[in-house]
Amino acid sequence: MAELKLKLMVPPALCLLLLIMPPLLLPPGCAATRLDPTQGPSEGNNKTCTELSKRSPILYCEHHACVYNCRIEGFAEGGFCNWLRCLCKRPC
Known about the structure:
The chain has helices spanning 2-9, 12-20, 28-33, and strands at residues 39-43, 47-51, 59-61, 70-74, 84-88. A three-stranded antiparallel β-sheet has the order 1-2-3, with no helix packed on it. With 92 residues, the chain is of the alpha+beta class. The protein has one domain (23-88). Residues 1-8, 14-69 and 79-84 have low confidence and may be disordered. The chain is elongated. It starts with a helix and ends with a strand. Helices cover 25% and strands 25% of the residues.
């Protein structure tokens, strides 16, 4: 019952704001890994990860030939950051 009350206390506008807020408002460790909002961090061998959409934290391997070499993994930086990054296992 307490969980239901907690959910009702969070205004929908706040949830929407959290979904669309720019990376600069995120914790420092998170912003540091995403200097450009449209491009994620580079992982080894200069493979880059790109956001599927500007509102989604999900990243994917940009280089199509490398997709099968990569896995998507969660990580935490700055305490609250949970962006996903792709890790390339070997060069293309």
